[in-house]
Amino acid sequence: MKFKAAIVAIATVLIGSPAVADQKEGNACAAKLSADGKAIYAASMANKPTPSNYQRIVEDETTSLVAARRIEVGSAAMRNGMAAGDCVKSALK
């Protein structure tokens, strides 16, 4: 029983380690974004994106922030959303 628990603990650490490193890469990328891009990145990461759904999450969060008038509209929102999406993608590698 203890052996099995130890294996699970080791596996969790090994699997979790790359995620932490990737999160740091995403955060470093996000630090270079505009204020609007940072807002999109933060809102998107709060939704725990995966490689298969991150684009939809970034689009939804960008749309939501525009609708709430928390970020600029139009091409600026698109540009910031794309930049934030690149950082989210980096965080998921």
Describe the structure.
With 93 residues, this protein is mainly alpha-helical. It is 77% helix and 0% strand. The protein is built from 4 helices and no strands. The chain has helices at residues 2-30, 35-46, 54-67, 75-91. Helix 1 (2-30) packs antiparallel against helix 4, helix 2 packs across helix 3 and helix 3 (54-67) packs antiparallel against helix 4 (75-91). The longest helix is centred in the first third of the chain and has 29 residues, at 2-30. The model is unreliable at 5-18 (pLDDT under 50).
In short:
With 93 residues, this protein is mainly alpha-helical. Helix content is 77%, strand content 0%.
List keywords for this structure.
mainly alpha, 93 residues
- Counting DSSP H or I runs of 4 or more residues, the number of helices is 4
Report low-confidence residues grouped into runs of 5 or more. 5-18
Q: What does the overall shape look like?
A: globular
Q: What is the structural class?
A: mainly alpha
State the total count of DSSP E strands: 0
- How much helix, percentage-wise, in residues? over 70%
Query: Average pLDDT value?
Result: 85
Binned strand content: under 5%
Instruction: Tell me the distance between the termini.
Output: 34 Å
Sketch the topology as an H/E string, one letter per element.
HHHH
Report the major sheet: none
Which quaternary structure do these chains form? single chain
Radius of gyration: 16 Å
